[in-house]
Design goal:
This protein has about 260 residues and is of the alpha/beta class. Helices cover about 45% and strands about 10% of the residues. Helix 4 links the parallel strand 3 and strand 4. Helix 5 packs antiparallel against helix 8. It starts with 12 loop residues before the first helix and ends with a helix.
Length: about 260
């Protein structure tokens, strides 16, 4: 199948019904965000990255369609920067539950939630039992919730192509994410405005601090890492390695 006709929202209802009958009973749901991404990237980064990532994961899972991305996520830790939108965890959980319930009622047997925003990983892990209850026994609900593992996929991709730049992966508006945007929406990337942010490894201690105190407490410009050196080649590999890793984890979980 082509990329276009994997997209649930671009199909007619008879086409969806036919695909379900043909065995396309899995669906991937990206959970993105509308939030600041430093001085060089737009607010929509995690939403459009979610669009692309969900398609790539669905291709690897086979027999999977792609639901519309949940475009706004849990971004309270970014609210110190103008323009960010954020859902309460309860609102996010309700939206995810309604997605799972709707899809299960139509006959999808596996729903895979894939966060493309760091702030959605922990909420998804927390609400996963509720999502499974909402979908019912006939539908399996899975979620990729390993934030540290996801950043490691980016680190591996950058190290593979440009080992001297691997330390610039920081997890937000960095060389990996900025390079992905060069592949997805290059017209919105302002390379000349890219400057270093908080340049250090993304670990549990840093994650706990930024989720507790907000990104302003960690980085004045909203960047974790350094975007300088970004390229389409790096972006292509980051997207591929992220999709490979997520699809493999979902398959291991039963997708």
């Amino acid at each position: 199948m082509s990329e276009r006709n994997l997209l649930l929202e671009e199909l007619t209802w008879p086409e969806v019904e036919g695909l379900l009958a043909a065995g396309f009973t899995s669906v991937v749901v990206a959970a993105g965000a509308i939030e600041q991404h430093g001085p060089h990237l737009p607010l929509l980064v995690d939403a459009v990255r979610g669009d692309r990532l969900a398609v790539e994961v669905a291709r690897r899972l086979r027999g999977a369609l792609v639901a519309p991305t949940i475009r706004v996520g849990c971004s309270e830790h970014h609210m110190g920067f103008a323009g960010t939108l954020s859902l309460r965890n309860s609102t996010f959980g309700a939206v995810c539950a309604d997605y799972a319930t709707s899809l299960a009622r139509h006959g999808f047997r596996t729903v895979c939630f894939v966060p493309s925003h760091g702030g959605n990983f922990a909420p998804l892990a927390e609400i996963l039992p509720h999502l499974r209850d909402a979908a019912g026994s006939g539908c399996k609900v899975l979620a990729y919730t390993d934030l540290q593992g996801f950043v490691a996929l980016w680190e591996g991709a950058v190290a593979e192509l440009a080992p001297e730049l691997a330390h610039r992966v920081g997890g937000h508006a960095d060389i990996a994410e900025s390079s992905e945007m060069l592949c997805i929406r290059p017209d919105l990337v302002r390379e000349e405005l890219a400057v270093p942010g908080h340049v250090a490894g993304f670990d549990e201690e840093l994650a706990e601090r930024l989720f507790r105190d907000g990104l302003r407490a960690v980085t004045a410009n909203g960047v974790l890492g350094d975007a300088r050196g970004m390229s389409r080649e790096i972006g292509d590999l980051c997207i591929a390695r992220a999709a490979d890793g997520i699809a493999a984890a979902l398959r291991e979980a039963g997708a």
